[in-house]
UniProtKB/TrEMBL annotation:
UniProt xrefs under Pfam families: YjdM, Zn_Ribbon_YjdM
Protein family membership: Belongs to the YjdM family.
Source taxonomy: Bacteria, Pseudomonadati, Pseudomonadota, Betaproteobacteria, Burkholderiales
Entry superkingdom: Bacteria
Domain Protein YjdM N-terminal: 3-32
Domain Protein YjdM C-terminal intervals: 45-111
Protein name: Protein YjdM
């Protein structure tokens, strides 16, 4: 089992060391061994552990009360075309009937 990091561009697991560099044989990307941990991109996961990406469709897994008395987003509501962001709420989205809002990944499941 290899302890080398996966390629940050194509996620290939077949990387190898060449001196002080890591090299990906599949896409040809090279990166510094010292910079490898810092280059790791954040991975967002839903409540079930599935990896989320921009543009995915997710389903709300519990009723969510909106601040300011705006109502409740019901369990089972589908949210299309999500955008993943850094911050307190991981997902920026638009929900029909509610408008733009932020959601946390712990309250959604990939559809």
């Amino acid at each position: 089992m290899s302890t080398l990091p996966a390629c940050p561009q194509c996620q290939s697991e077949f990387t190898y060391e060449d001196g002080s560099q890591f090299v990906c044989p599949e896409c040809g990307h090279e990166w510094s061994a010292q910079a490898a941990p810092a280059e790791q991109a954040r991975v967002w996961r839903d409540a079930s552990g599935n990896v989320l990406q921009d543009g995915d469709t997710v389903t709300v897994i519990k009723d969510l009360k909106l601040k300011g008395g705006g109502g409740v987003v019901k369990m089972g509501t589908k949210v299309k075309n999500i955008r993943l962001v850094e911050g307190d709420h991981d997902i920026d989205c638009k929900i029909d009937g509610f408008g733009s809002m932020g959601l946390k990944t712990e309250f959604v499941r990939k559809a």
